[in-house]
Specification:
CATH architecture of the domain at 53-179: Orthogonal Bundle
Largest sheet: none
Helix content: over 70%
Number of strands: 0
Order of helices and strands: HHHHHHHHH
Distance between the termini: 46 Å
Structural class: mainly alpha
CATH class of the domain at 53-179: Mainly Alpha
Low-confidence stretches: none
Shape: elongated
Mean pLDDT: 91
Radius of gyration: 17 Å
Strand content: under 5%
Number of helices: 9
CATH topology of the domain at 53-179: Tetracycline Repressor, domain 2
C-alpha cells in the first residue's frame, strides 16, 4: 500500500521534527505548518501522535537495517565503517538517529513506541556482535555495546554542539580500537 502524497509529507515533516527536536519537541500544529495543511488534516491521517510515531519508528528501523545489511565489505574495518556511515548520514543532515532521539525521551513514549526503540537498539548491538563474529573475532556483547555507545554518543555530542569533527574523531578512534583482533 503506497501512502498518499499528503500522508508521506506529514510523515517526512514529523520525522524531521522528531530527529531534530525529539518526541516532546513537536506537535501536530508544527507538522501542519511544515506541510502547509490544517492540523485537522494531520489528525485525519494519523489520529494520535503515538500512532504517527510508532509507524515512524517502524519505518525508520526497517529502512536503517535494510541499508545496514546492504554492506558488501566483509572485513572488520569495512563492516564497522559501514555501521558508522549509517549514523554519519543522519548527522550530515543535521539530524540525530531517530532511535537515539526517541531513546532520550523513552519515559514519555507509549509502551508500543518504547518497545520499537528497544528492538532497534538491541538489533544494532546484535548486528555488531554478528558482524564481529563473522570476521573471526570473539567480540563480546559488552564490547559491541561499547562500540555502539561510542558511535551514538559521538553523534549526539557532535549534533548538540554543532561540531561534526567530534563525530569523526571519536568514530575514527573507535574504529582503530576495534578493527584489530581482540
Amino acid at each position: 500500500m503506497k501512502l498518499s502524497d499528503t500522508k508521506q509529507n506529514i510523515m517526512a515533516a514529523a520525522r524531521l521534527l522528531a530527529q531534530t527536536r525529539g518526541y516532546n519537541g513537536f506537535s501536530f500544529q508544527d507538522i501542519a505548518e511544515a506541510v502547509g495543511i490544517r492540523t485537522a488534516s494531520v489528525h485525519h491521517h494519523y489520529p494520535t501522535k503515538a500512532a504517527l510515531c510508532l509507524l515512524m519508528m517502524q519505518q525508520y528501523s526497517s529502512s536503517f537495517f535494510e541499508r545496514l545489511y546492504s554492506g558488501t565489505d566483509d572485513s572488520r574495518k569495512g563492516m564497522l565503517s559501514h555501521f558508522i556511515a549509517q549514523y554519519r548520514a543522519c548527522l550530515a543532515d543535521n539530524r540525530v538517529c531517530l532511535g537515539v532521539m526517541f531513546a532520550s525521551d523513552i519515559a514519555d513514549l507509549s509502551p508500543e513506541i518504547a518497545d520499537e526503540v528497544h528492538k532497534f537498539l538491541k538489533a544494532n548491538q546484535a548486528w555488531l556482535v554478528r558482524a564481529f563474529r563473522s570476521s573471526g573475532s570473539q567480540l563480546s556483547a559488552a564490547q559491541a555495546h561499547l562500540f555502539f555507545s561510542s558511535v551514538q554518543g559521538a553523534m549526539l555530542t557532535a549534533w548538540a554542539i554543532q561540531d561534526h569533527g567530534i563525530f569523526e574523531e571519536a568514530t575514527n578512534a573507535a574504529l582503530m580500537m576495534f578493527q584489530r583482533p581482540l
